[in-house]
Amino acid sequence: MSGTERDGRPVALTRWRKALLTSTRGQIIDRLRSADRTVEELATALGVTDNAIRPHVQQLERQGLVLRTGARPGARRPAVTYKLAPGAELLFSEGYVPFLDQLLDVLGGTLGRDDLNDVIRTTGRRLAARPADRDAPLAARVQATVALLKELGGVMEIEKRGNGGNGTYVIHGSSCPFAAIVRLHPEVCLAIESLVAEMAGARAHARCERLGDAPRCHIEVSPRPSRNRPRAARPW
Predict the structure, then answer these.
(1) 142-199 residue pLDDT tens
(2) Which domains does the chain have, with CATH numbers?
């Protein structure tokens, strides 16, 4: 595994982040990370006019990446101050994947593989937004599960197999919400599996394709014959 793959920062993502930071909007975001600023202050920092900066700030505000925080006295009227929206900081946070990589290595060495897998499954269940509504049709529960996976950053589609309410569904993921860490720790797929089982109130069996740059998952969801928790997934 190459150094770039090992530290969890794929080349394409690193290039995208660098491209963002060198753009005008990226430089605005970068300046707002350290302090609230007005349009005039941003223009001065970037060596351009207020009129050149203002449309970019307005667009970032519409996108929810920057927020208005107040106003400061100006030459003719108060100048609005802006700050970086809390969620936008994630665009610059590169430490999560290397930290999680090392954490899983340490836990695996301390707990052993079986106990680590149990921890990962438990974590997946806790990621489920809410317990499954056992009275709802399985189709509705699968839809709610996919909605959650999309909120986490996945790109998912649902395939129905079989007829009637007791058929099987397959969730096909063309973009995994945990892609960066799954490349380093395939056992993290257990979290997806247990999340789906908990959220859908059904049996879930995940199969992950980790060839190429984009891991793809296929999760088979079928009715659970009892209220017992899903059986343990395969060892990795």
Answers:
(1) 999 999 999 888 888 998 887 755 678 999 988 888 888 888 898 999 999 999 999 9
(2) 3-92 (1.10.10.10), 96-223 (3.30.1380)
Residue in the block written with tokens 């899903």: 230
Among candidate residues 121, 106, 104, the one with its CA nearest the CA of residue 235: 121
Place of tokens 């223009």: 43
Q: What are the DSSP calls for 190-235, one per residue?
A: HHHHHHHHHHHTEEEEEEEE--SSS-EEEEEEEE-SSSSPPPPPPP
Which pLDDT score is estimated for 164?
A: 59
Q: Which residues of 86-98 are buried (b: 16+ CB within 10 A; e: fewer)?
A: eebeebeeeeebb
Instruction: Say if residue 121's pLDDT is above 90.
Output: yes
- Rounded to an integer, what is the distance from CA 197 to the centroid of its chain? 19
What gap in Å lies between CA 210 and CA 110, rounded to an integer?
A: 26
38-52, 109-123, 211-225: which has the minimum mean pLDDT? 211-225
> Do residues 82 and 66 make contact, with C-beta atoms less than 8 angstroms apart?
yes
CB atoms within 10 A of CB 80: 16
